[in-house]
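hey so i finally got around to running the thing on that chain from the lab meeting. sorry it took forever, my laptop kept dying and i had to restart like 3 times. anyway pasting the input first so we r on the same page abt which one it is
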Amino acid sequence: MMLKLMTLILALAFSALAGPITKLPAELPVTVLEGSSPNPATLELSQASEKLLLYRSRLGENGTHALVAADLVAADAYWHKTIADSKGGFVGAMVRARAYAPHAVLNATAVGQVLFDVADVGWRDNFLSATPEHYLASRRPDASHDNLAADVAERWGPSPITYFHAIPVSKLSFMPALHEFPVELQMPLGLALSDDTVFAYTLTALRDLPGGHSIELVEGLWLPDSTPGDIVKAVRAHNTVEYTNWLKLAYKAAMAAL
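ok and heres what got predicted. didnt touch it at all, straight out
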């Protein structure tokens, strides 16, 4: 009896193995045996970024603005409704990253200058290249080395393409204390729509880590508590790409200056 049972079990097992494959991966697994990179997605992202920058340069600022003008108007209405639907609180998306280079080459102060000095002639190009979700960037007339005054338009995943400009604010209660970060390297900002209504807040902080060979960056962005969760999730993804790229852009500038 036991022998018959074992024979039946083995027969069923072989039958299952010989049957059609019922579970397949959603995407075909591919291994690069010879090529430019073992990770084609990295190459694809680089190629896509270059293509977008080419389109922007050909369109120019006026052409790009005309292309997204209707989106910017719709975004204003969207965020005003989101504010009206809010209970008064905010939901945040945090990013924390570290970069590794000798402080003699790159330090937190130098990163802050590249990130926030909108008066620098290269800031606009850096902003546009930091993530494909950046559409527009232009300095305001009152921009200076000490005044972050720029008009930008960007998108966070499924969010509308939104125009805003940043205004200095005091640190708010929902922002992390970050006692280990120098106060002078913490930048809290309000993000204001075209009618100067503040719809979001950000906090960027930088510090040099002990040992002289690494930098830490923290970036938080807070939106009204009525903001859909998929947009909050997209903000985190957006800022992960953007601020790691700002670190790389700062390093590139530092290396060029050597």
